[in-house]
Design a protein that fits this description.
Length: about 150
């Protein structure tokens, strides 16, 4: 249960990060929330079945939330490289490859994290496509409302 709680926390955090980084849309809503529910179901069910069948031990399962939070950290440092400047951008540029190395060091759980990232990207893109009509221009001001 602790592993599931940590996993759910990081999936929710990733969904909120995705929601914050997506451009604004005419009908604001909770795009990321749907992605959390779907990715939890799509990735959680097979993991629970693997643990229940004995093919996956509890200690092996604990590595999955580690890979998930490292994936969120990797996305955050990559975003920081893109949006920050000065010393903060340099720090992010140093941290990003280090986080990637740690993520790859988790072993097979990186595949579960990749599956979650792909599912979230696919579901987030689908909800984004259905939310706004095609051909609606997005201005620079809408993307960066500072």
């Amino acid at each position: 249960m602790l592993t599931l709680a940590a996993t759910n926390t990081y999936l929710t955090g990733a969904a909120e990060l995705t929601e914050a980084l997506l451009p604004p849309r005419p009908n604001p809503g909770r795009r990321g929330s749907y992605a959390v529910v779907a990715t939890t179901a799509v990735t959680g069910a097979p993991l629970i079945l693997l643990v229940g069948s004995g093919a996956l031990t509890t200690s092996q399962l604990v590595a999955v939330p580690t890979a998930l939070f490292l994936t969120v950290y990797l996305a955050c440092t990559a975003a920081a490289i893109r949006v920050l400047d000065g010393p903060a951008r340099l720090a992010a540029a140093v941290c990003c490859p280090a986080v990637l190395a740690l993520l790859l060091g988790t072993g097979w759980p990186v595949l579960a994290a990749a599956a979650v990232a792909l599912a979230a990207a696919f579901l987030g893109q689908r909800s984004n496509d259905s939310a706004a009509p095609h051909g609606v221009p997005v201005t620079e001001r809408e993307l960066n409302p500072r």
